Amino acid sequence: MAGVTRGRLRIYLGAAPGVGKTYAMLGEARRRAERGTSVAVGFVETHGRPQTAEMVDGLEVVPRRPLPYRGGTFEEMDVDAVLARRPQVAVVDELAHTNVPGSRNAKRWQDVELLLDAGIDVLSTLNVQHLESLNDVVEKITGVAQRETVPDEVARRAEQVQLVDSTPEALRRRMAHGNIYPAERIDAALSNYFKPSNLTALRELALLWLAEKVDEGLQKLRADLGVSETWETRERVVVALSGGPEGETLLRRAARIADRSSGADLRAVYVARSDGLTGASPAALAKQRRLVEDLGGTYSVVVGDDVARALLQFARSENATQLVLGVSRHSRLAHLLRGPGTTAAVTRMSGDIDVHIVTHEHAAGSWRLPMPTTGVDVRRRLWGLALSVLLPGLLTPALLLTDDALNLTSDVLLYLLAVVTVALVGGAIPAAIAAVLSTVLLNWFFTPPVRAFTIAERNNLLALLVFLAVGAMVSAIVDLAARRSSQAARATAEATTLSAVAGSVLRGETALTALLDRLRETFGMTSVSLLERQDDTGRWSVAGSSGPRSCRSPGEADVEVPVGERLTLALRGRPLPSEDRRVLGAFAAQAAAALEHQRLAQAASAAEDVARADQVRSALLRAVSHDLRTPLASAKAAVAGLRADDVQWSAQDVAELLATADESLDKLTYLVTNLLDLSRLEAGALSVFARDVALDEVVPIALDTLGPAADEVRLDVPPALPAVRADPALLERVVANLVSNALRYAPPGRPPVVTASALGDRVELRVVDRGPGIAEADRERAFTAFQRLGDTDNGAGVGLGLALSRGLTEAMGGTLVPDDTPGGGLTMTLTLPAAGPGGSTA
């Protein structure tokens, strides 16, 4: 259809079903129809909602296409009919829908693409969980795998994406009132997909995705309009890193600036040379990158030889509003020789970007001249010094023997070749010596008047000066190249070593030993020890070691690397060059962190054991004084009454007293059994015999143990549910405890409901009551052993049953979570892993 303008797509995006996407879409369709636009409904799914169905009334509806599939008949949008009708606007609900086999396309979004290509505008709806890029994230949040997805590119190409928003509380109220799902699906939906935590996370995902699309649209608009200046639609702070020691100061200062700017985005950028060589430490850059991520920012690397221009190009491409730089570390003399630094250039060219220049302790202001480093080793330098004398010395008599066959220009070029050769071998210093010596020899032997240090012609003077300058520059360039090559090779080696250290995921007590082993192997040392000085005696103790003959004090080490005030890394084997100190420092810091982690883990384990023991001890005291005394007192009173000689009891009174004693002793036995099981749980001594078991077999048995009171409980446990992996006896007790608790608080005429459903690789059992419920702030306290809310009223709150139920559930690998029942009450959700394929359901 050449020449047809592609139609425009508007998507109504929602965080979850029921937020009102279809209603909003139909509202827009009606408004356009009222304005005279040709509108046709290709497909709308009302889900039985009367308000949505009313919005369709009055709109032209294209008949759907019936398709047979697996013995039934299904209706899909008739794309060909909509194309034949050719309205100006087509309404197509549920963009992510999968069509029934036999349809023209497999996916509805592909149908929509056909309509758009035909020049028809389309209104459609989409939930955030159906976006391809967010599909796995949504599954982790909700536990539900979404098989119907839409490529993000399709949604991003939409001309308009309108968010239809609703708070989690409002959406749950709509659900509870029956405005979204039928009554039989409400409880399961509210307890699963429509949990407040799920809805909050989905809503945030939708807002973030839409914010990214809005930002993409803004960048595209700026590019289309050729806008280079900053549009301050959103604060963005860019901090420039050089890999120097001031980086951490700059990052923290930039983070504070971003926080004060209403949570602005933080972006860190490092400008690398285009030749791939840099004097920055890879370890320092890696450390600063981790700090950026810890501060909630993003890290980028751009390439450019002009650092100032590269920084500003990056800042403007990110639509940054503020740029943070550090005061230069170069000396004043260096600025005089090299010209203005990066900070001055950025400030001059920043335009409408605010520049913050942050001082730091590493800033330089002196006139010192930094000593250059060289990449030429000692052996090459010695050869270069020898050649700096030999080559000019041998070349001079050779030229004299030519008996004036060559002119001065040829002599200069031959001496220049000798200087370049010396520079390639020995570096700058030998080349400088060769250049000076060659100049002297040229002047004395070959520049008229010969054998005199005077020069008769200006051209000859200029030739000698140019020769000396070229020789100096060539030697400097060769030396710089050698230095850069040496730095690059060393940086690569350091980066490889440090990445191996950073990439090693070490845990537990072996972390320190493994790290010291790696250090010893990396540097080929005999032994490596981490020494710790004792505060009370000042003596050194070995916190960790690797290799034989480990050092017992720093004085025994060939290499010593202090780590703080109390730790020292001691290496034995051979002295190491000073260049290795940077990598050694990284190893030492990692070793100190590993030691601290090991000790914190040990302390946490010890504290956890003490806390657990104290909790059990407190629970026992409360049990003896609170729960056990009541049935014991009742039983003793009944027995004492029966044994009284001064009272004549009738047969009915005797039976009643015996029943009271029997009931009290049963309660006492039940409490003691629970107490013993809880003690075994706390001590980790409870035996769990897990196997595949069906819920529809366990739940009725659990209800039978509760007596006649459980007859009113409503059961909705489908036999087709997958089996769960659990201990049948423990599972029966958990279900019995939960139902017993629900019966205790269920109002008359509204018995508890026990339902179950499958959710991914889990199975959920819900015990729903319509009682007073538990305030959200008190829900965790309800699971504390022997804790009754307030500890004053035996008839209120929950006690040992819930604590034991959660402990038994977790021992079987499940979870027990309380939640509100819509309309009032408490819903206890018991989640257990589903049995594996092929498991028994016995």
UniProtKB/TrEMBL annotation:
The chain crosses the membrane at residues 382-401, 413-441, 461-482. Keywords: ATP-binding, Kinase, Membrane, Nucleotide-binding, Phosphoprotein, Transferase, Transmembrane, Transmembrane helix, Two-component regulatory system. Pfam families: DUF4118 (PF13493), HATPase_c (PF02518), HisKA (PF00512), KdpD (PF02702), Usp (PF00582). Its main location: membrane. InterPro entries: HATPase_C_sf (IPR036890), HATPase_dom (IPR003594), His_kinase_dom (IPR005467), HisK_dim/P_dom (IPR003661), HisK_dim/P_sf (IPR036097), Histidine_kinase_KdpD (IPR052023), KdpD_sf (IPR038318), KdpD_TM (IPR025201). It is a multi-pass membrane protein. One of its GO terms (molecular function) is kinase activity. Its EC number is 2.7.13.3. PROSITE patterns: HIS_KIN. It comes from the Bacteria. Residues 623-836 form the Histidine kinase domain. It is an enzyme of class 2 (transferase). It catalyses: ATP + protein L-histidine = ADP + protein N-phospho-L-histidine. It is found in: Cell membrane; Membrane. SMART domains: HATPase_c, HisKA. This is histidine kinase. It comes from Motilibacter deserti.
